[in-house]
Structure formats: structure tokens, C-alpha cells
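Same chain as my last thread, 358 residues:
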Amino acid sequence: MKQIDNSPKTSKVKNLLFGLIISFFSFVLCLGTLEIALRFGLLDGLYAKNFTWTPPRYKAFNRLTDARNAVIAVRHSMKFTDRERSVEKPAGVNYRIAVLGDSFIQGDGVSYDGIWSHILEKKMIALDPSTEVLSWGFGGWSTAKQFGFFQQMGVRFKPDLLIIGFVLNDLEDLLPPVDPNAGVVKRQPKIPVWKTSISSFLASFKPIFPFSSDFLAVYFEQYYSNIAQKQTYTDALQETDFGDNNLKRYDALLAQFKAFCDSKGIEMLFVLTPNNYDPSFEKMLSSIKPLLEKNGIAYVDTYPAIKTQLSKYTPFELRSNASNGHPGELVTQVYAQEAFDYLVKNGKYGKAKGSLPK
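reply #2:
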């Protein structure tokens, strides 16, 4: 008869294996409990506080909103989220305004009627039906790309006024490409083995627990990012896009843009559109306003109105929807109203045709 080994060493191994098995099944049980909580929306309130993990039903709503705008854009000859416009002014239109922008004008996450250029158009037409407002926007369009489009295609529409919807990443295309032969190159930090192992371990549970696996993976990625890079998105923007050298490039671009519009008899107006009332937006916009003034470009800074009117809301409530960080209709209404007030004050509509102050 084979004797059972009850040595201390063997007992420790057995206890270790038993502990690992218990730990594994406890972890699986926790995943299952978390899966149920996530599927029934019991943790949705947590998302409203830190925007880390996005519940799938929120993502579905965002996709539906964007799909509705896409149906409109696909019918447009230039794929803008706007109704088709004729190159020449239609009969009865005395004053044409074109609004150039990026995803804020394209309508990322917000309904067609919630896009601020469309809100502005309704306000202008109610004031004076002989005024027309065109909406030209694509996600990711910087001021440089907007200028390129306007030179090649937009100028054919001969707007009386060109409005540029300025957002904080409009300077990014001016950054020079990284040249590995130009000196020291900041390399991406090497991903440690422990990080890869934990990510793979969490991913292995996705077929069974898709919600909880994604939930833990997203929070783990955030934890790792906080360790690997102790810099926020706006901090990075201030160091790169809003650095002194890039601001000089933007100054030169503004001068070219203004000279081109002047040569065509087209007035320019920048509308500065921060996402919300965060002080970092005000700080970066303060770097742009002197450049506009230097180049004789009129502007509307919507930040003071947003701070005054919307600071009672949380940043979450100002988003376009729960799954999308673009500004929602509470914010786009302010953009449109501030622009409208400025245009009315300066007679920029069909029956008035005033001049913008420099």
C-alpha cells in the first residue's frame, strides 16, 4: 500500500494550490456579480462621475445620433451635415454666411438641430429671411485644413461672411513631424511585461463576461496611464499645440487666411468654442485672441457666457450625450446665441450689412 506523503513541504504545496483555486473561483464569482450589475445599469452613476467606462447602451445611443446625421451628410455633394446649397445665392438671399469647423459643425454626438451653426441659421432667418447660413464641418478639420478647403472649394460660394468655429485642437496640423535624425527623440516608454500579462488575463474572460471584462480593463488602462504619463490632455496641448513656436506658425496661417479673404472681399469672424467652463480652456483661448487682434480678425469669445450661464451644470451634463464628450445642446445654444448677438449688434444680416469692428 502506497504511503501518503504528509510532509510539511507537501502540505504547503497543497495549501497553495487550494488557495489559488479558491481565489480563481472567487474572482470568477466577482466577475459574474459585476456583469449583472453592469448589465442592469447599477453602476451607471459611477460613469457620470469619471467618464471612464462607457455603458454599452450609451454607446448605442451615440451611434444612433451619428447615424442620423450621416444619412443627411451622405446626400450632400460635399458630405457636410447640411442641406444642399447652390453655388450662387438663391433668389431672395441678400446675405450669405458660411460657418467652417470640425466635428462641432459636423454634429458629432449631437442632433442636426443641435449643431450650433444650424441653431444660428434659425435665429438669423427668424430675424431676416434674406440671410443664409451654410454649415461646413468635418471631424478633425484644423484651421489649416479649413483654409485649404476654402481656397479650393468654399470660395466659389462667395459668402459675405466666413465664420470659423475655433476649437482647441485647431493648431495640431502645424506641428512639425518628428524627425529621428534631428536630435533627441522622445520615445514611447516600453510597456512592461506585467501590464501586458494583466491585460491578456482580463481579455481572456471577455467571451463569458464581456461587460465586466471591459469595465476592469478600462480602469486598469487608466491606472497604468496615470503611472506612465502624469499629464492631462490639456497639459499636453499647452506644451505642444500652444507652445511659442507653434503659436508663431498659427499667426502666419491666420495672416495668410485673412489676406486671402480680403482679396475676395470676404469678412472673417472667429467664434471661440470651448467644450465647457474648465479654466484650462480660458487659458489656451487667451493665447489665441492676441493673434486674431494682430491680424485684424474679429472674434467672439463664448467662454465668459459659458462660465456664467452653465457653471451650475456638471461637465457630464454639458456633454453631447452620455457616451460622447463633444459639447451638447446646452453649450451649442450658447455658441449660437453669442454669435447671433454679435452679428445683430454689428448688422451682419441681409437687411443691414454692417461692418465688423477690427
